[in-house]
Amino acid sequence: MFRASSHLTMAIFAIVSITFVTPTVHAHTPAEAMAEAATRFLASLTPEQRQKAEYDFDGEERKGWHFIPKDRSGLALNEMKPHQQQLAFVLMHSAFSHRGASKALNIMALEQILHEMENNNPRRDPSLYHFYIFGKPSTKDTWGWRIEGHHLSVSITVVNGKHIAATPSFFGANPGKVMQGPHKGLRVLAREEDLARELALSLNEEQRKAAIISTEAPDDVINGPGREATALEPKGLSARKMTQDQQKLMMTIVREYVNNLRPELARADLQKIRKAGPKNIHFAWAGSLTPGKGHYYRLQGPTFIMEYDNTQNDANHIHCVWRDFENDFGEDLLKKHYDKAHANK
Asked: Does residue 76 belong to any structural domain of this protein?
């Protein structure tokens, strides 16, 4: 096993890697960039490492995502040499925008803060983030990949080498706000919280009656691991009953989640959301409107749900998830692909 000389070295290396590889990756289409990055990453690995990184596309592991700190399969960063780590980050950035990559790297860096807060807990380690390749990377065939560790899990599916699905997508932060030390004040997922609270506080009394579904926030997001993406009741406040400014703010929140993806992918998902009708989106809030108190919200449209929960550790521990009702793990794309193949026989 190859370990970085220190957690700090790993975090700095990650940031440098992303900075220098971005122009090359984004010179290709997303599918081309992913196939090239995954192929180069796999080619750099030893046979033993490849056994950990490669999985059948149709196997159970592809849908076995989670965000808690636990023992994982996949190939972890601390099992890679520096050049392999760099190639792994090239793969990550083939799907992520600058904003999304920054969030992901900062989420990893928070593990070092937890490591120190918890008396050098070995389970808190910025290098315990794992990479998975499902099937054979290709610009023509179907395959997928995932990056995953504590508070980060993003699943990518590529169908026919060109159609891409990028959910489930989970980002979390613990601490939500760093309270002391050299990184005091850091809030990795600040906009996810602040924009939604701004929307909730802008509501008049009648709107709040529909939007605030409970005075108590749930303990966690509902559409988490082990559950298919599911629409929830009560829906909350319809965008049709919002002012234009409130509707714009609502869509700013939606974009905050979607724009974790590189621009081409984000545009495709936003187009799908707009086609289904922004006015068909509902906003629901539960818990306190006061910063520092437990709260939860969700945005739910005809095709998607985005959930945010901040209740743990004195409401300083954030979970955010984005799910697609039809196309999680590329299910809708795969169905169309198989239906077409069957029709052509």
From this structure: yes
pLDDT value at residue 336: 84
What per-residue string of b and e applies to 241-278 under the rule 16 or more CB within 10 Å gives b? Answer: bbeeebbebbbebbbbbbbbbbeebbebbbebbeeeeb
> 261 and 295 share a domain?
yes
Alpha carbon 97 to its chain centroid, in Å, reads 12
From CA 312, how far away is CA 294, in angstroms rounded? 8
Using DSSP's 3-state secondary structure scheme, residue 31 falls into helix
**Cα three-residue angle 100-101-103, rounded to 5 degrees:** 65
The whole-number average pLDDT for the span 79-93 is: 97
Cβ–Cβ < 8 Å for 91, 77: no
Q: Are residues 146 and 41 in the same domain?
A: yes
Angle at 274 between CA 273 and CA 279, to 5 degrees: 100
pLDDT in tens, 16-26: 344 444 444 45
Quote the distance between the C-alpha of residue 236 and its chain's center. 24
Q: Is residue 174 part of a domain?
A: no
Dist CA 40 CA 34 (whole Å)? 10
Which amino acid would we find at residue 251? M
User: What is the domain extent for residue 211?
Assistant: 190-326
Number of folded domains in the chain?
2
314 and 201 in one domain? yes
Q: Are residues 150 and 62 in the same domain?
A: yes
**Rg (the chain; Cα; Å):** 20
User: Does one domain contain both 12 and 153?
Assistant: yes
pLDDT (tens digit, 9 = 90+) per residue, 288-320? 999 999 999 999 999 999 999 999 999 999 999
For residue 227, what pLDDT is reported?
96
Residues 38 and 156 in one domain: yes
